[in-house]
Amino acid sequence: MPHGEYGYDAPYALVIFACLSAAAAVAAGFAGRAGDARLTLQLSGYTAFFLGNTLSFLYTTRRGKFIEWDRILDTLALRGDERVLDMGCGRGAVLAAVAKRLTTGRAVGIDIWRAVDQSGNAKAVTERNVALEGVADRVEIETGDMRDLPFPDASFDVVVSSLAIHNIRGTSDRQKAISEAYRVLKPGGRIVVADIKTTSLYESTLRSLGASRVERRRLGWQFWWGNPIAATTLVTASK
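The chain above was modelled as a monomer; its predicted structure follows.
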């Protein structure tokens, strides 16, 4: 498992699930004392549901996403000399995992460092994490907007993104991010995007740009954010 500290994704959502579970449990207790067996059973069901969501979310953000991304990156079978971009790298979980698979290559992370999307999100934290993972010599970290990447055309062999593009508001701006990812990709390069919503938009945008081997599939329970409805979906394509 990773040596760095990667915080919690969407920490407000985790707190909401935990609070709803606690509130339902308290309400069930009051209903039980009042002798309302039906309401007690109903509220106990809500307690179990929200507690399950809390535990699933906590597991995914602290362990499951690392396992799934290791599997995803393994399928890329990187040679080690690639130049890889991580769009919306956050605290560097995927960035470091990519860098560990490189030898002479470079992993470049870019983010605007919004803490609402990931707790404690900051460039200095990411720099510390890649140092803890022993890959600082293979990593570059930039501050920038994925809708307007500060890189020339055809700069990267692989572009990855994990749970970042959905944080951009608006369909057109999300399309810009995907278009930018495609622009900076070298011919023959690959795009790998994991996200929880609007992935059909990513797929259609890539197809309209002329991408080949465009695929979209849901990932397993280790990448659920509470329940199957909030599963992560993977979009892959080649240029």
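The mean pLDDT is 94.
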